[in-house]
Every structure is written in structure tokens, then in C-alpha cells.
Amino acid sequence: MQIDLQVGMPMELQTTSDLSLHQMVQAIVTVLAVINPVVCGSILLTLTPKLAPAQRRRKAVRVALSILIILIASALIGLRVLSVFGISLDVFRIVGGMIIAYMGFDMLSGRQTVGQATPTDDDAAASNSLAPLIMFAAGPGTITAVVTLAAVHTPDGLPVTAIVAAVVGAGVTFAVLLLAVGMGSRLGHGTQAMITRSMGLIVASMGMQFVLTDLKAFLSL
């Protein structure tokens, strides 16, 4: 009997460890999918057409830190904040999807005035120029994913899985943004304008997908 117990305990621990690793990988993949770092890199280029590579890198740092702060805060207190105001996740995603779709239509039409920041702009203008990118990367879809991960994997205590996924997601996004800055310095204004409109179509489509999917879920309640 002693032998059975000694053999069984490592197997149980291994199974628990494998399950935790699977949950962690699944959470990281989920967060990366909704952040979409590749699209974020393209958006950074379209929002900063007149900035030098060094200034774009500084903006990439600011974006990555903003994403990290928003997602960690969402993992820790996101669900409680929505509950205090009586807002469901479906409604939150619907409104957020409408905002993202509006930003996409702006990019598609070429109006996108928030992205025309110049090197002489003050800090407030610089922050405003990053708002569409931060809203896209750490918007309602990403926040909902992180909040859900925090609620499902760690109903009590510290949401380690959601926090690790947020850190990895922000780190990968930062790396892709830096890569995009390096590539963007070799692109002409015409190419960047074409990328802007292409990304606008994608962003608008994703925003509308949020709206339609969650509107259907909300109406079926």
C-alpha cells in the first residue's frame, strides 16, 4: 500500500502541473489573438507617419506599458468595476466594438487626424495620437478575455494565469512594434497610406464583428 501511494502522488502532481501548463499556454494564445500584435505594428506606422524611428520606438514603449497596465488592472479589478456600474461584458464589448469600428472607418477614409502628430507636438497630443492603437490592443475584446481568464482559472485569490498572459502579450506586442518601426523606416508615404486604408478595413471589420457577435449574445439572454 505504501508503494502505491508513493507512486501515485508524483503522477497526480504531474497531471496537475500539465493541466496548469495547458491553461497557461491557452491563456497566452488567447490574449495574443485578441491583441493581434501584427495589426498593432501596422497601426503604429499609420499613426506616426511623420515621426523619426527613435520617436516611434519611444511611442512603442509607451504603448506596450499602457497595454500592460490596462490588462493587469483588468485581471485584478475589471469584473468588479463592471459589476459596480451594472455593466455586462456583452454590453461593454458592443460599445467598445462600435468605437473600434469608428476608428477603422476614420483610417479607411484617410481622415485620421489623430495620427498626424509631429515631432514638435506636446505630450498631450502625443498621447492622443496613440489612443486608437491602445484602444485597439487593450480594448473591450482583450479586456473581456483577460477578465474571463481571471474569473475562470482563479475564481479566488491572485489571477496568476491572466497576469502572466497579459505580461507575455504586452512583451510580444512590444517586440513586434519595434520590428514594425524598423520596417517602416524603409517604406514610402504612398505605401504607408495604402497600409493605413488596408488596416482601417481590418479594424472596422473587427469592430463590427464585436458588435454583431455580442449583440446577438445580448439579445438571446
From TrEMBL:
<feature type="transmembrane region" description="Helical">
    <location>
        <begin position="24"/>
        <end position="48"/>
    </location>
</feature>
<feature type="transmembrane region" description="Helical">
    <location>
        <begin position="194"/>
        <end position="212"/>
    </location>
</feature>
<keyword id="KW-1003">Cell membrane</keyword>
<protein>
    <recommendedName>
        <fullName>UPF0056 membrane protein</fullName>
    </recommendedName>
</protein>
<keyword id="KW-0812">Transmembrane</keyword>
<feature type="transmembrane region" description="Helical">
    <location>
        <begin position="91"/>
        <end position="109"/>
    </location>
</feature>
<comment type="similarity">
    <text>Belongs to the UPF0056 (MarC) family.</text>
</comment>
<feature type="transmembrane region" description="Helical">
    <location>
        <begin position="130"/>
        <end position="152"/>
    </location>
</feature>
<keyword id="KW-0997">Cell inner membrane</keyword>
<feature type="transmembrane region" description="Helical">
    <location>
        <begin position="60"/>
        <end position="79"/>
    </location>
</feature>
<keyword id="KW-0472">Membrane</keyword>
<dbReference type="GO" id="GO:0005886">
    <property type="term" value="C:plasma membrane"/>
</dbReference>
<feature type="transmembrane region" description="Helical">
    <location>
        <begin position="158"/>
        <end position="182"/>
    </location>
</feature>
<dbReference type="Pfam" id="PF01914">
    <property type="entry name" value="MarC"/>
</dbReference>
<keyword id="KW-1133">Transmembrane helix</keyword>
<dbReference type="InterPro" id="IPR002771">
    <property type="entry name" value="Multi_antbiot-R_MarC"/>
</dbReference>
